[in-house]
Amino acid sequence: MNASTEEQPSSSFDAVKWGVIFLLLAGAVAGNYVYGEESVLIRAVAVVAMVGIAGLIALQTEKGRNAAIFAKEARTEVRKVVWPTRQEAVQTTGIVLVVTLLMSLLLWGLDSVLFWLVGLVTGMQV
């Protein structure tokens, strides 16, 4: 098995870090509630700061490092994508709208015919 795919044992200190992260996020929620009379700006800055600190601590854990590596690789893959031109996007959107309209008309007609048939068979006309 490849060394990069093998399960790496996480340090026991990671559990402590996750506990601190949980306490920070719970403190942000509780502090926002307790200091509800304070300015919204001050509370928002405090919550963003606590979430940022929790994020930085999370990046120091094994799962956090793996998430950061995944995000970097995803960004690299997004750069490789060949995006459609404006004309291609408009044409594709038009095709989707026309097909959607045609299918909705087809289903409406089918529903009307089936509704009429059920009314004919049951003798209940609405």
Automatic annotation (TrEMBL):
Superkingdom, natural source: Bacteria
Gene Ontology terms, MF aspect: protein transmembrane transporter activity
Q: Which UniProt keywords apply?
A: Cell inner membrane, Cell membrane, Membrane, Protein transport, Translocation, Transmembrane, Transmembrane helix, Transport
GO CC terms on record? plasma membrane
Chief localisation class: membrane
- Pfam family membership, one: SecE
Annotated membrane-spanning segments are 15-35, 41-59, 95-118
Q: Which GO terms describe its biological process?
A: intracellular protein transmembrane transport; protein secretion; protein targeting; protein transport by the Sec complex
Q: Which PROSITE patterns match?
A: SECE_SEC61G
InterPro entries referenced in this protein's UniProt entry, alphabetically: SecE_bac, SecE_sf, Translocase_SecE/Sec61-g
Localisation per UniProt entry: Membrane
Complex and partners: Component of the Sec protein translocase complex. Heterotrimer consisting of SecY, SecE and SecG subunits. The heterotrimers can form oligomers, although 1 heterotrimer is thought to be able to translocate proteins. Interacts with the ribosome. Interacts with SecDF, and other proteins may be involved. Interacts with SecA.
NCBIfam families reported for this sequence? PRK05740.1-2 (NF004372), secE_bact (TIGR00964)
Protein role: Essential subunit of the Sec protein translocation channel SecYEG. Clamps together the 2 halves of SecY. May contact the channel plug during translocation.
The entry sums up its family as follows: Belongs to the SecE/SEC61-gamma family.
What is the recorded name of this protein?
A: Protein translocase subunit SecE
| Species per Swiss-Prot/TrEMBL record | Colwellia psychrerythraea (strain 34H / ATCC BAA-681)
Lineage summary: Bacteria, Pseudomonadati, Pseudomonadota, Gammaproteobacteria, Alteromonadales
